[in-house]
Amino acid sequence: METPGLVHGGAECFSKALGSLVNNRLYSDVRFVVGQERQEVFAHRCLLACRCNFFQRLLGPEPGPGVPSPVVLSTIPAEAFLAVLEFLYTNSVKLHRHSVSPLGRGGGEGGLRSRENSSTPTTALQVLEVLTAAVEYGLEELRELCLGFVVKVLDVELVCEALQVAVTFGLGPLQERCITFIEAHSQEALRTRGFLELSAPALLLLLRSDKLCVDEADLVLAARSWARVGAAVLERPVAEVAAPVVRELRLALLAPAELSALEEQNRREPLIPVEQIVEAWKCHALRRGDTARGASCRRRRGTLPREHHRFLDLPLK
């Protein structure tokens, strides 16, 4: 209930005035060095502290010897940090679906609670960095704005990166939305860079799904590509990188010729434990699904039919 006699001026003018102070040296009393590019960003201590507990703790009650000058924040890109500042100063942020110049201003489609003449626009990929910062800084309202925007613009190029953020920070609804999207666009999603950069826990979520619209042979190839990238980055053997996820590959779905070819390739470049391939051969020899293991013989939505599938005990999902 409003206080009797309390009247409000124009919120738009107030927001525009505060927005003009974003990254403005005028009257600033705190300086950040942000991102790998070490971009200098100016801000105002009292505003950050009253809007965000993270900055209140980081900056302390007043400037002093305990506060580094400048404050270095190397893990957040400068564009994302400027978007966070924009939200803190104006309680709004302009999020864009398409890439624009980091120095540009102006329009884009799909803005949520957007302002005209906002500071640095944010691309769909950058919005994940803003979301990450919102979670880490405890900015719940900004987090919800970013989540709503990501869901609205979710596409093949974005979905795996969004899934990784959801898994990292335990964002259940976004995780479910991403998995559902990948299930419907599996072939395209598996060819993205974001897929190759998934963590093992995120990839496990996908490999456990019965609803992936992709054949198992293609899924094995995708898992090998993922493991090769991880092995190069981590400087570890491919089989070691792949170990947490390859158990979810359903090798019994492959035809004998495909399984033989996989076995030969596995000798040249180990990926899958030998005993897992042996289990698949047992399924062929016995001409029935391994009901004890269940999922190893269960067909996915995109599994192509093969002659031996009629011997599997478990029906197509």
From TrEMBL:
Pfam families xrefs: BACK, BTB
Sequence ranges assigned to domain BTB in this UniProt record: 28-97
Signal peptide stretch: none
InterPro entries: BACK (IPR011705), BTB/POZ_dom (IPR000210), BTBD19 (IPR042846), SKP1/BTB/POZ_sf (IPR011333)
Domain of life, source organism: Eukaryota
Xref: PROSITE patterns: BTB (PS50097)
PANTHER family the record matches: BTB/POZ DOMAIN-CONTAINING PROTEIN 19, BTB_POZ DOMAIN-CONTAINING PROTEIN 19
Designated name of the protein: BTB/POZ domain-containing protein 19
Species of provenance: Myotis davidii (David's myotis)
Upper classification of the organism: Eukaryota, Metazoa, Chordata, Craniata, Vertebrata
